[in-house]
Amino acid sequence: MGQPHILILGPPGAGKGTQSGNIAEEYGIEHVTTGDALRGNKDMDISDMDTEYDTPRAYMEAGDLVPDAVVNAIVEEALSAADGFVLDGYPRNLEQAEELSGMTDIDVVLSLEVSREELVDRLSGRRVCDGCGANFHVEFDQPAEEGICDGCGGELEQREDDRPEAVENRLDVFDENTTPVIEQYQDHEGFVAIDGEQPPAEVWGAIDSAVRERANVSE
Ligand code: AP5
Asked: Going from the N-terminus, what domains does the chain have, and what CATH number goes with each?
């Protein structure tokens, strides 16, 4: 077996980005994230794909899904360049899950479970560095100096889609589109549900044990 192929699923704010960073660093694999890829290309011209809007920005700021054709192309390119990976933010509907099954095999499926109330608290308090993209939280993970990134000294800002109306919509979009994907992956032999409501270090401990049991990772 080569490097592990890991899928991390869960609602907005469940900690997918936080834990994917740990996974990528620990096992030396790529972190493939559709959210970051789209945020880096918010104003990309997608008008030739016959979409409702001409750029990803309008979908993302409302908390809606960007059209499948755009996201499928991003993931296909990223996975073809990666040996091992942790895939974060995809698939988000059954059509994307079908597309992924034609691209690659998956060894481990991690499903982070967190209550809606906790998700709203996490997302509304999240602050993101405009320089390096690091995540902080106004209550759970404060920087040493208010509004300033501990890592690079960049300014901390609120993501457009972390404002209250967009957060509620993102959670509804997840319930409607992505919950059926998770139900489908429950039959996968590498599926494991993780209690994402524990402190970050404990979530990481549960993930690390689950991955080591299910995939051939180097010590
Ligand atoms: P994306 O960037 O993927 O956003 P998301 O899924 O909504 O996830 P988040 O990044 O908000 O949360 P997360 O689970 O990574 O949590 P995090 O670790 O940051 O997608 C954004 C948009 O892009 C979508 O709405 C859509 O428009 C578009 N898009 C992306 N993929 C797409 C696709 N496949 N198809 C179509 N459109 C797509 O943690 C959140 C906060 O909680 C942080 O402040 C963190 O510090 C804190 N935290 C984390 N863990 C814990 C813990 N254990 N305890 C306490 N606090 C914690």
From this structure: 5-29+82-214 (3.40.50.300)
Q: Which of 9, 18, 65, 158 to mutate to test the pocket of ligand 1 (most atoms within 8 A of CB)?
A: 18
Q: Which amino acid is at 174?
A: F
Give the CB-side neighbour count of residue 97, counting CA atoms within 13 A. Answer: 18
Mutate to test the pocket of ligand 1, among 19, 38, 52, 198 (most ligand atoms within 8 A of CB): 38
pLDDT digits over 112-132, tens only?
999 999 999 999 999 999 999
In tens, the pLDDT along 156-183 reads: 999 999 999 999 999 999 999 999 999 9
Question: Given this model, what pLDDT does residue 169 score?
Answer: 96
